[in-house]
Write a structure and sequence with these properties.
Shape: globular
Strand content: 15-25%
Largest sheet: 7 strands, mixed
Mean pLDDT: 82
Bound molecules: S-adenosyl-L-homocysteine
Strand order of the largest sheet: 5-4-3-6-7-8-9
Length: about 290
């Protein structure tokens, strides 16, 4: 994991929400997490796919298992193929540097092809973002895993908020690593799409909301972890306020050039900010449509 850059801690809220990071002396854009650079950054310890018993949370894999149709008499070759391809995707994500086994286990559990329109499902397990309609995308598996790894920091997560449900894929992955997950989407048809995609998986610990995620969910706050799946020029103040003390927020920040930012709430009025690797996300927008 990279060292934080040029950070003076703790920071007042104004410096976390403002453009202070972009103006810091010596600030240089970090590398962008494209599949290529991420592969160059790879750690050399191979990830060995966990056995079924290493699944992150029992209740969770139960939830996902319940969603499967009644066990067929004979093995389903189509499902076996997608399992093998998904395992290969997880191995690639691990090679790109994601080390958290709980996150890798979650990635192995969630059927990414179920979140992608049939015409594109052959590409479901390549490490790329793909269109989901309304000018939005399903995020690249590496970045989904990386953000959750950074947010988790090897600790258990109780309540987590995602801004930007999109097709619902990352929300499903989050539901494998946290006790309660809330996800907000501002585009009504995508909120409906996520509901439809997630329904067959019957994930009991996930709640979808239609609304402006920049406002967060004050009625449910505080959250131990918040992930933004869309990039703003700064992290909305409401979200910083809804982070529990000790909680961690991970967000892409920037316009043309974006970086992942990790913000940790260290006190009632204190937040710490670290700039991590480069990334590329769709924009965070206010309001609902
Ligand atoms: N989480 C997704 C990625 C979704 S793409 C995945 O699983 O791959 C980002 C999403 O953020 C888009 O659907 C976009 O509509 C949504 N978004 C942008 N601004 C938002 C806001 N203010 N509140 C809620 N959702 C927002």
């Amino acid at each position: 994991m990279k060292e934080p850059k040029n950070s003076t801690f703790p920071l007042p809220l104004s410096s976390v929400t403002g453009a202070a990071d972009r103006k810091r002396e010596g600030y240089a854009p970090a590398r962008v997490a494209t599949p290529q650079t991420a592969t160059r950054n790879a750690v050399h310890t191979p990830y060995v796919a966990p056995k079924a018993s290493a699944a992150p949370s029992k209740s969770h894999s139960d939830a996902l298992q319940r969603s499967q149709p009644a066990a067929p008499a004979a093995p389903r070759p189509d499902l076996m193929v997608s399992d093998a391809i998904r395992r290969a995707m997880v191995l690639r994500v691990a090679k790109q540097g994601v080390q958290d086994r709980v996150v890798l286990g979650a990635l192995e559990t969630v059927p990414r092809h179920a979140f992608i329109e049939p015409a594109l499902s052959a590409q479901a397990y390549i490490d790329a973002s793909l269109p989901i309609g309304h000018n939005q995308t399903i995020s690249q598996p590496y970045i989904v895993a990386r953000m959750i790894e950074v947010m988790r920091n090897d600790g258990p997560l109780q309540r987590v908020l995602e801004i930007g449900t999109g097709c619902g894929y990352q929300a499903a992955v989050l539901s494998c690593v946290a006790r309660e997950v809330y996800s907000i989407e501002r585009i009504k048809p995508l909120h409906e799409l996520a509901k439809a995609n997630l329904r067959p998986l019957r994930i009991a610990n996930l709640r979808l909301h239609y609304g402006d995620g920049m406002l967060g969910l004050p009625q449910v706050a505080p959250f131990d972890g918040i992930i933004l799946a869309a990039a703003g020029l700064e992290v909305p103040r409401a979200l910083l306020e809804q982070l529990a003390i000790g909680g961690r927020l991970v967000a892409p920040v920037g316009a043309q050039v974006q970086h992942l930012q990790l913000i940790t709430r260290t006190g009632k009025a204190e937040w710490m900010s670290e700039t991590l690797e480069g990334c590329h996300f769709v924009p965070l927008r206010p309001g609902t449509v």
